[in-house]
Automatic annotation (TrEMBL):
This is UBE2Z protein. The keyword Signal applies. Pfam families: 2OG-FeII_Oxy_5. Keywords: Signal. It comes from the Eukaryota. InterPro entries: CHP02466. The gene is UBE2Z. Residues 1-19 form the signal peptide.
Length: 282
C-alpha cells in the first residue's frame, strides 16, 4: 500500500468553516470569479485578437482538448515574467526573468485583487515551513531564495489534466478556488513505479479553500470533472478553478544536469521513538 504521510502531502485548510481555516469563503470566491473572468477574457478577446503568427495564437489554435488551458498557461507565464506589464508580456520577444515574490505577477485586475496578493503571501510564508517539516535542514530552507510562479486553470465539464511532475522545482502547490462535487480529484501516482505490488494511487477530494503542497517529483493529475449536465437537474456543474504554484530556484526550474545540487535532495526525515524491551518480550 502506498503510504502518503502528512509530511509528503500537506493540506492547509484556508476556508474558515473547514477545520483549521481562518479566512471567509469570500476569499476563494473572489479569486475564482477573477480567474474565470481573466480566462474568458483571454479566450474571447485577447486570444482571437492576436496576430496569426503570435506564439500564443498558435498554441490556442492547436487541435487538442487542452489547447485553451495550455495557451492560458503561457499567457500567464509571460505576465509573470513581465511583472504584470501586459504590453511587455504580449510583445513577441522579451527578456525573461523571474521577478521577486512581491512583484506583480498576473493580469492587472488579478494583481489589483487583495485576495490574490494574500494567497501568494500565504504560499510564500508556508513554503519554508513545508520544506522544513519534510526534512530539509532549517538553515537550508531559510537560505533558499525562491521564485513563486503561479497560474490559474479553469476546467469545464469533462476536462482533466494528465499525469506530470515538476522536477527541478523545490516543491509545488495547488489552491482550490472553486471545487464542487463534480470537480474531480487530485490523484497522486505511486513513486515506486507502475508494476505490482506498487502502482497504487492516492486520491485527494478537493474542497474550495484547500491548499495542497507536495514534492515536485510526485506524479499527479487532475482527474476528469463531471460531464456537461446533471441528468436529474439538467444543470451544468460549476467550473473547476485552481491556482497552481511552482516554488523553485530564482533562475527557473533546475535543468537535469544540475539536479545533483538540488537542496531538496538533502532532505532527511527521522523519527525518535523509545521502546520498552519488556513489552516486546526481549
Ligand atoms: C501592480 O498592479 C496594480 C494593479 O493592477 C497596479 O495598480 C500597480 O501600479 C502595479 N505595480 C507595478 C509596479 O506595476
Ligand atoms: C539569496 O540571495 C541573497 C541576496 O541576493 C544572496 O546573498 C544569497 O547568496 C542567495 N542565496 C542562495 C542560496 O542563492
Amino acid at each position: 500500500m502506498l503510504i502518503m504521510p502528512d509530511l509528503v502531502m500537506t493540506v492547509v485548510r484556508i476556508l474558515g468553516c473547514l477545520a483549521g481555516g481562518w479566512l471567509p469563503a469570500s476569499f476563494h470566491e473572489k479569486l475564482a470569479s477573477e480567474a474565470v473572468r481573466g480566462w474568458q477574457n483571454f479566450r474571447d478577446v485577447i486570444g482571437p485578437g492576436l496576430p496569426r503568427n503570435h506564439e500564443l495564437y498558435r498554441q490556442l489554435s492547436q487541435k487538442h482538448a487542452g489547447a485553451l488551458n495550455d495557451a492560458f498557461f503561457h499567457y500567464q507565464k509571460r505576465l509573470f515574467e513581465a511583472e504584470g506589464n501586459f504590453e511587455l508580456a504580449m510583445s513577441p520577444d522579451f527578456e525573461t526573468s523571474t521577478p521577486p515574490p512581491d512583484a506583480n505577477s498576473s493580469w492587472p485586475d488579478m494583481n489589483a485583487l487583495p485576495e490574490y496578493k494574500k494567497l501568494r503571501k500565504i504560499v510564500e510564508r508556508l513554503s519554508r515551513r513545508y520544506l522544513t517539516r519534510s526534512g530539509l535542514a532549517p538553515e537550508s530552507a531559510m537560505a533558499l531564495n525562491y521564485s513563486l510562479f503561479n497560474w490559474a486553470a479553469v476546467h469545464g465539464p469533462g476536462e482533466f489534466h494528465g499525469p506530470h511532475t515538476h522536477v527541478g522545482e523545490y516543491h509545488v502547490g495547488v489552491f482550490y478556488a472553486q471545487a464542487g462535487d463534480g470537480a474531480g480529484k487530485l490523484r497522486f501516482g505511486d513513486p515506486r513505479g507502475h508494476s505490482p505490488p506498487f502502482g497504487r494511487s492516492f486520491f485527494h477530494s478537493p474542497r474550495s479553500g484547500d491548499l495542497v503542497f507536495f514534492p515536485s517529483w510526485l506524479s499527479h493529475m487532475a482527474t476528469v470533472t463531471a460531464p456537461q449536465t446533471n441528468p436529474t437537474s439538467g444543470e451544468s456543474p460549476p467550473l473547476r478553478v485552481v491556482f497552481s504554484f511552482n516554488i523553485g530556484p530564482v533562475q527557473g526550474p533546475m535543468p537535469c544536469h544540475v539536479w545533483w545540487s538540488d537542496p531538496t535532495g538533502d532532505m532527511r526525515f527521522s523519527r525518535k521513538l523509545a521502546f520498552n524491551p519488556e513489552t516486546l518480550g526481549l
